[in-house]
């Protein structure tokens, strides 16, 4: 059988030979002592890219999100977000389980940020009865929203309102790179519309691990304590930071290819192209477990989002031939 085409997620990529060499060559030190030069350089670079003062290298997007939210929300206060947000869907209830943070959700149209709808739900800090809304979490691109890019106008409207209201904005930017490539909006513009932002290298950028949390210098100093407390203090971790630096230089510039592949896949599967803004293709009204199993038997892996929905995510380990093969296999199974 030809090589497996794994479209379950863009997290499944393996480090390329060039990335492995960069990892092997990395200068390292003990990062808990703040002595790993490769980590420090990455943190400085990412902070600058997103227009923030400081950054912290963390093991995962989940840790970046959860510490990011904790920096702007006290136990007993709430974070408001949309009902399909990763932070409340796929992070194992961490905000409540780990930090005592309450979350409240607003139903959205496939993840689309609606600043007014969120603002309308915000609860004040000075009421004796209510759980105060300390922060709003935004996801860009939106995972369960089929990789949708959030409209810049909505992000700006939320940010401008939040300054007067004293409510913080956290950005789950696991795939902010895809948003930037698709929209042409630069990373710093997105970064400046958030108090805290978590960005991932282990999705479209293809590293084996690694996320970075950006914010003010003061908040990042606190984030460093939280990371250690959670067991996320890492030692000679420049080997991983080097993979991230490599990815910024070699994989970020090619990310548009993944979007082209997603569009091609959608076209071949007869999926509405309007639903494909970045690197995800979602097919609805299918018997997801059956399709996933039968596709696997033919060497194509797809993600099951629900009983009736599959997700196919393009990434750096899948080329055009792989996309065509996947389309043939999956198209045959879903009758499109
Ligand atoms: N998403 C994963 C799964 O958890 C669903 C995937 O395969 O898409 N924010 C967003 C928007 C994400 O999509 C993810 C990962 C994360 C955060 C968490 O990143 P990790 O897995 O590094 O904790």
Which characteristics define this entry?
binds ligand TLP, Aspartate Aminotransferase, domain 2, alpha/beta, single chain, 12 strands, globular, Aspartate Aminotransferase, domain 1, 336 residues
What count of helical segments does DSSP give?
A: 14
* Shape descriptor: globular
Q: Would you tell me the structural class of the helices and strands?
A: alpha/beta
**Total strand segments:** 12
Q: Give the class-level CATH name of the largest domain.
A: Alpha Beta
Strand arrangement, major sheet: 2-8-7-6-5-3-4
- CATH topology group of the largest domain: Aspartate Aminotransferase, domain 2
Helix content: 40-55%
Domain count: 2
Estimate the mean pLDDT confidence.
97
Provide the CATH superfamily of the largest domain: Type I PLP-dependent aspartate aminotransferase-like (Major domain)
Low-pLDDT residue spans = none
Radius of gyration: 20 Å
* The CATH architecture of the largest domain: 3-Layer(aba) Sandwich
Question: Helices and strands, in N-to-C order?
Answer: EHHEHEHHEHEHEHHEEHHHEHEEEH
Which ligands does the model contain, each kind named once? ligand TLP
Distance between the amino and carboxyl termini? 23 Å
Characterize the main sheet. 7 strands, mixed
Report the β-strand fraction as a percent range. Answer: 15-25%
């Amino acid at each position: 059988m030809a090589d497996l085409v794994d479209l379950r997620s863009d997290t499944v990529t393996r480090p390329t030979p060039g990335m492995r060499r960069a990892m092997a060559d990395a200068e390292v030190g003990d990062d808990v002592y703040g002595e790993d030069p490769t980590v420090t350089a990455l943190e400085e670079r990412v902070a600058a890219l997103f227009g923030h003062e400081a950054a912290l290298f963390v093991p995962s997007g989940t840790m970046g999100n959860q510490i990011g939210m904790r920096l702007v929300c006290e136990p007993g206060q709430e974070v408001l977000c949309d009902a399909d947000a990763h932070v409340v869907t796929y992070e194992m209830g961490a905000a409540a389980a780990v930090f005592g943070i309450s979350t409240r959700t607003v139903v959205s149209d496939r993840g689309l940020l609606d600043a007014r709808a969120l603002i309308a739900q915000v609860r004040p800090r000075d009421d004796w009865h209510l759980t105060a809304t300390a922060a709003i979490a935004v996801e860009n691109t939106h995972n369960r929203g089929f990789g949708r890019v959030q409209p810049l106008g909505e992000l700006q409207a939320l940010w401008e309102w939040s300054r007067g209201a004293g409510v913080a904005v956290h950005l789950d930017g696991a795939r902010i790179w895809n948003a930037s490539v698709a929209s042409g909006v630069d990373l710093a513009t997105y970064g400046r519309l958030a108090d805290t932002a978590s960005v991932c290298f282990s999705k479209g950028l293809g590293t084996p691990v690694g996320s970075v949390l950006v914010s003010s210098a003061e908040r990042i100093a606190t984030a460093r304590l939280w990371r250690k407390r959670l067991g996320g203090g890492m030692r000679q971790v420049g080997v991983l930071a080097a993979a991230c630096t490599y990815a910024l230089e070699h994989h970020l510039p090619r990310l548009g290819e993944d979007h082209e592949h997603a569009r091609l896949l959608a076209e071949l599967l007869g999926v509405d192209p309007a639903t494909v803004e970045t690197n995800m293709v979602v097919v609805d009204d299918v018997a997801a477990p059956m399709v996933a199993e039968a596709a696997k038997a033919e060497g194509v892996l797809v993600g099951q989002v629900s009983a009736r929905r599959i997700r196919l995510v393009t990434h750096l380990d899948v080329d055009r031939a792989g996309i065509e093969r996947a389309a043939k296999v999956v198209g045959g199974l879903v009758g499109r």
